[in-house]
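Lecture 7, part B: from sequences to assemblies.

Below are the input chains for today's worked example.
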Amino acid sequence: MIRLAVVSGKGGTGKTVVTGAIARICTRPRVMVDCDVDAANLELLLKPRILERKDFYGMEAACIDPARCTACGICGDACRFDAIRMNGGTYTVETGRCEGCRVCRLVCPAEAVSMQPRVCGEIFYSETPYGNLVHARLAPGAANSGLLVMEIKKLALSRNGDCDLMLIDGPPGIGCPLISTITGTDHVLVVAEPSVSGLHDLGRVVQVSRSLRTQVSVVINKYDLNLRMSGVIREYCREQDLVYRGEIPYDEAVMEAVRMARPVTDYDVPASEAITTIWDDISHELW
Amino acid sequence: MRICIPAKGPDAGDFVDERFGRAPYYLIHDTDTGKTESYKNPAAEAMGGVGPRAAQFLLDHTVNVLVTARVGGNALGALKAGGIIILLYDEAGSTVRDAIAAYSRGGLREQ
Amino acid sequence: MKISVASGKGGTGKSLVAANLAWSLSGSEQVTLVDCDVEEPNLHLFFPEDQPSVSTVTMQVPGVDQDRCTLCGECAGFCAFGALVVAKDQVLFFPEHCHSCGGCAIACPAGAITELPRPIGTITGRMISPSLHLVTGTLNEGEVLAVKVIRAAKETAGTGGWVIFDASPGTSCPVVETLQGSDFCILVTESTPFGLHDLALAYDVTSQMGIPSGVIINRSDGKDEAAHRFCDEKGIPVLAVIPFDRKIAEIQGSGDLISRRDPSWKERFCAIGRACRSLVEGA
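Predicted structure of the full complex, as C-alpha cells:
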C-alpha cells in the first residue's frame, strides 16, 4: 500500500479539492483519510454513508472527589494550566483546560484526585463510491490532534490493508497534526498557492517533510491568479531540488463542483484536465 | 544475552513489527536460558512520548540487544544512552523466530 | 477594543481582513496588530519593516543535578508525557514531549530536579507607523507549546487603543487561547460549502465562549444564500461581503494591501471597525 498525503502549509490552497479529484480518477483500490481533524471537509465531496462512529479518548482528565476534598487549595496552587477552580466550598477541575499532567493528584494530601477517561472527539468510518473514508471531528479547544490523526490512519489501515493507495487529505499548518499526518507516508504532494504567504509556507512544509524523509512533489493551484509568484515558486522548486508536477488553473467549475458536492473530476473542465495529467505523472512513479 | 524483538502478536511464530515504538508486543529472548518472554508494549497506546517510553520499558527489562527495522530520534538516543545495541533486521513477512535465527547467525548491521 | 479575526477553515482571508482592518484604522487611531498564528505567522509579509525588537519566549523544563540524582526512576514514572527516561547511569530528557507541568521536580525524592528556562519561540515587535504596532508571535519549529507563545504575544500587545488578533485557522487550543478576552470576533468565511461547514464549527466556539461575533464573506461569487441563511438563523450580523476579484487576489498575493492601494477600501474597513464597536457598545 502506498500512502500519499496532500498537504499545503498554508490553509485554503485547495488540498481537499485536489484530494477529492484524485479519489475520483484513481483506478486502484483505495481508502481515504481526512486528517484535517479540526475542520474535516473531504466528506463534503465524497457522498459518504456513515457505517460506524467511535468516541476518541484523549489524555485523561483529573477529577476531584468532593467527598474527600478538604479544600486546602494545594492543587489549585500547583496547577500550571489554570484548570482548578474553587466552586462552592470545594475545588473542581475544568476539564477543558486540564492537560492530564497529574500534578494535582501527586500533591493532594487527601487522595481526592483521580484520573478519568475523557472523550475529546469522534471518529467516523464511512463507505463512499470511491472506497472507504475515515474522518474525525476534534472537540473545540481540544488538544491531542496529533493522536487523533494517528488513530484514524491506524483504523483505515487495519480495515483496508489490501488497498493499493491510502489517500490522505492533510491539515493546514506544520504542527502536531501535520507531522502525524506525514509520519509513515511514502509521498507528500504539496498544493501551493501563488502568493508571498504561499511560498513562505511551502518552504516550511517542505522542511518538515524532508526531515521526516518522505518524497515530496509540488503543484501550484490557481496558478494564473499570480503568474509572477507562480514563476517564483517554480524557481524555488528548481533551487530546492523539488519535483514540480505541474499547475492547475483557476477554474470557476471547481466551486460549482463543490456546491454540487462532487469531485471536480466528475466534470470535463480545465482544472480536471490539469489534475488528471498531474495524477497520471504521480501514479506512474508510485507504481 | 537478552534480545528484544518487536512483534505484531505474543508468540514466537507471530510476525515481526517493523515499528519499534508502536509494536503491540515485545518478545524478549534470553540466549542463556533459551526462553522467550512475551510482553504487551505499554508505550503502544500511549498518548505521547512513545519513543522514550518504549526505550524505558526495554531498559527496565534489562534488554541488551534490540533487533528491529529502524529506530527513530528520541528512542534511539535513549537506547544508546542505556547501552542497548540496535541491530537492523528488515525482512518483509518474517516471524520472531526468523529474527532470532538471523541474530544467531550473526552479521546484522548495527544502527 | 479587542477584536479577534478567526475562521473554521484555513485560507478564507483572515490575514487579509486583519491586516487591512489594522492599516485602515491606524489612519486615525492607535492600533496594535497581533499575529497569533504562531506556527505560520505571515502578517509581517504585508509590512516589510527593518529593525524589529525581538524577545524570547521560554518554557520551564527540568534540569537534573546528576550528583543528587539516585536514578530511582520516580520522575520518569511520573511524567504523563514520556519526556523523561532513566537509563543505567543518567536521566534523559525529551523537550518536545514536555508540557512544563513542574511535576517531575515535585516527584523527585532527592530534590535533584530544578526548573530551567528553555526557549521555544520569539515575540517580534515592529512599529509600522507611529499609530500601528505589529506584534508577531513565532513558535520555533518542532515545538508544540503554541499557547505559551500566544499568551506572550498578547501580553506584549497590551490593551490600549484597537488591538486586533489574527488567529490560526480551526478551533483548536491555540485558537481558543487567542480568542480569550476578546470583545468581539470577526469570523471570515467563503461562500462555499467548505466555508459554511467550517463557519458553523467556528461559531460554536465563539458562542460557547460568549464572544459576540460578526461574519465577513470573502471571495464571494454572488451565490452566498446559504451563508446568509445561516447567519440569519443564528442572528449573526454580516459585516461585509468581499467579492472574488482577480485584482484583489493579485494585490494581496504580492504582499500588498487593498486598503493601502485604494482609499475606498480603506473607508470600507474603517466602517467595519466602527460596526464592530457599535455592536459591542450597543449590546
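Note for the exam: The first strand of chain A starts at residue 2 and ends at 7. Keep this in mind when comparing with the next example.
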